[in-house]
Amino acid sequence: MIQVGDITLSLDDPLVIGAGVLGAVLLALLVLVVVSIRSAARSARAAEPLAQHMVALGEQVRQLSDGQHQLSGGLKHVSEAQALSQERMVQTMERRLEEVQKAMGETLHGTAVRTTRSLTELQERLATIDKAQSNIEKLSGDVLSLQDILSNKQTRGAFGEIQLNDIVSKALPSDAYAFQATLGNGRRADCLIHLPNPPGPIVIDSKFPLEAYEALRRAGTPEETNRAAQALRQSVRSHIRAIAERYIIEGETADGALMFLPSEAVYAELHANFPETVREGFAARVWIVSPTTCMATLNTMRAILKDARMREQAGAIRKSLALLHRDVELVVERVAKLDTHFTQARKDIEQITTAAERAGKRAERLDNFDFEELAPEADAERVIPLTRPKN
Question: CB neighbours (10 Å) of residue 9?
Answer without folding.
Answer: 15
